[in-house]
Amino acid sequence: MARPCYNGVMNWSAIAAFLLALAVVMGAFGAHALRGRLDPYAISVYEKAVFYHFVHALGILIVAVLARTGTFPLAAQNRVCWCLFIGILLFSGSLYALAISGVRVLGAVTPLGGIAFIVGWVWLAILLIRQRV
User: Fold this and answer.
1) What's the pLDDT tens digit per position in 27-46?
2) pTM
3) Inter-residue contact 127 to 80 (CB < 8 Å)
4) Is residue 11 within 8 Å of 5, Cβ to Cβ?
5) What digits encode the pLDDT tens for the residues 52-91?
6) Which of 35, 39, 64, 117 could bridge across to 12 with cysteines, CB 3.0–4.6 Å?
7) Is 21's pLDDT higher than 50?
8) How far does CA 92 lie from the centroid of its chain?
9) Contact present, 26 and 57 (Cβ < 8 Å)
10) Spatial distance between the Cα atoms of 75 and 62, rounded to a whole number of angstroms
């Protein structure tokens, strides 16, 4: 049985694969189940959520692969991936909810996810600069 955690480090490759599958599901759901039910603004919000979800899930996978090659320590991978994961939850999650529900106040959460994305990418950049990769 696969373990989600090994010595305190999450199996981010597996988590990324699951998040990528979920991004495809969410995209298909938006394209098929929500077309005709949402106005053009809500569709564009939903599509933006899917796009950022997909890009950052790929980012998690790339970070996990880089860490496995020894580019930087696994503990550092954990920090970067958590930031990207939290970003997906807050940014894409709030946009999915906003698009489907129409409750605009949910958009107030979105910037927090954006900040998590930025922190994760900057953290990765610092790690790579330190390793001179």
Assistant:
1) 999 999 998 899 999 999 99
2) 0.90
3) yes
4) yes
5) 999 999 999 999 999 999 998 888 999 999 999 999 999 9
6) 64
7) yes
8) 8
9) no
10) 15
Q: Which residues contact 46 (CB under 8 A, 6 or more apart)?
A: 30, 34, 38, 95, 96, 99, 100
pLDDT value for 10: 86
* Measured distance CA(81)–CA(89) in Å, rounded: 12
- Beta strand residue intervals within the chain, DSSP E: 5-6, 9-10
Residues 6+ apart with CB under 8 A from 121: 59, 84
**Amino acid at the residue 35:** R
Residue 29 CA: distances (Å) to CA of 55, 87, 124: 18, 21, 32
Distance between CA atoms of 124 and 82, rounded to whole angstroms?
Answer: 12
Radius of gyration for the chain, computed over Cα atoms and rounded to the nearest angstrom: 16
